[in-house]
Amino acid sequence: MAQDFERRTLPQVGTVATALGAAFDSDDAIISIRIANVTSGTVTADCYIYNGSANIYLVKGITIPTGSSVELIDGASRFVVQNNDRMYFVSDTASALDVWVSAVDSIST
To answer: What distance in Å separates the CA atoms of residue 51 and residue 63, rounded to the nearest whole number?
Structure first.
């Protein structure tokens, strides 16, 4: 069975927590999260998933230097999101982050 690889992006995330599109609609595997600092100064960033009842942080207060990016999933690591989970990003600086998330959609089918 072929895998359905997908990507979601968010440009210029700032000081208001911003959802990565709509809620996930099935059991998906997140295979990559890259957050880039697009400003001329160092920024801090948070990434969390709201699971319907609580915010679950993947990273909180990570420092990203000017012109750099961070990869939140290391090597062969993966994690599963389920129906209605929503991923959010926020920075301490306006319009500071570009975000790219790659996933395998509907891994249980």
So the answer is: 25
Question: What's the domain range around 74?
Answer: 4-105
User: If we measure between CA atoms, which residue out of 89, 73, 85 comes closest to residue 11?
Assistant: 89
Beta strands in 3-78 (DSSP E): 4-13, 18-19, 28-37, 43-50, 55-64, 69-71
Count: domains in the chain: 1
The residues with which 87 forms a beta bridge, in sequence order, are: 49
Q: Give the model confidence (pLDDT) of 23-60 as tens digits.
A: 777 788 899 999 999 999 999 999 999 998 999 999 99
> 55-92: per-residue pLDDT in tens?
999 999 999 999 999 999 877 788 888 888 999 999 99
Residues 83, 26: Cα–Cα separation, whole Å: 5
Mean pLDDT across the chain: 90
CA atoms of 35 and 11, how far apart (whole Å): 10
- Which CATH number characterizes residue 67's domain? 2.60.120.340
